[in-house]
Structure of Phosphotransferase:
Amino acid sequence: MKLRVKRLKHLMGEGWHLRPAGGATGEAYVAEQGEQKIFIKRNSSPFLAVLSAEGIVPKLLWTKRLESGDVITAQRWVNGRELKSYDMNSRRIGRLLGKIHRSKELLDMFKRLGNEPLTASRFLEDLEDKAKQSGSADPVVKDAIAWLRSNIQEVNVEDYVVCHSDVNHNNWIVSEDDSLYLIDWDGANVADPALDLSALLYLYVPRNEWEQWLSSYGAELTRDLEKRMSWYMIAQSVESVMWHKDKMQVVELNKWNTMLYDVLNEVNV
């Protein structure tokens, strides 16, 4: 860590002060010099420039490649706040997510990087592998995986989009000038848009508001979309249950177990 900060300070030049910006990867820093303040990250999303150009993330200031091959990016620091759970049923969230999912530039960039789509089959195979590796004997997880396998024909789509894949409220920020951004794109995938929609709607939007929220996103609440969202919500709940169980995070584990139980009951009615 100290060596990394030393290299970044050398890259930034005299007078800059760096401090960790937090986050799971430990690769992000806040750089300050007088009244100047910027966000520095190592090996951020390779399509950050497109995200910046479309106003989805704070403005990209510069990109530099180090001799080691690492890429350092600098973005404008945004004074603002992370959204809370109660903010997430806002129609502007739907509009921005719709803009992201309809972005041809983002999709073209992702395809040029050679990434294969995260299909439902791939997602399920990954879950089954993780379940085997963890030795999970949880009957709800087993039932859920069996349901996913038997209903996988319900989630065949041809129109894949760039999905953020972690639309948690902590990744949405609103600036002092009321600009809305979706940050932390390291886990993005080309996938069924229902991957993002399921997590956002099930976690944050009351069921009786889904139709109105989806209207702001630019879609109708069809039976097909409902089936796909149910499938992906169950899949993401299984993934989260196994992850939090491995980390022994009891509060989050209980939350995701409840979500998994509720959605399974809903689809089996």
Summary: The domain at 2-77 is CATH 3.30.200.20 (Phosphorylase Kinase; domain 1). The two ends are 52 Å apart (CA to CA). The chain has a mean pLDDT of 90. The longest strand covers residues 36-42.
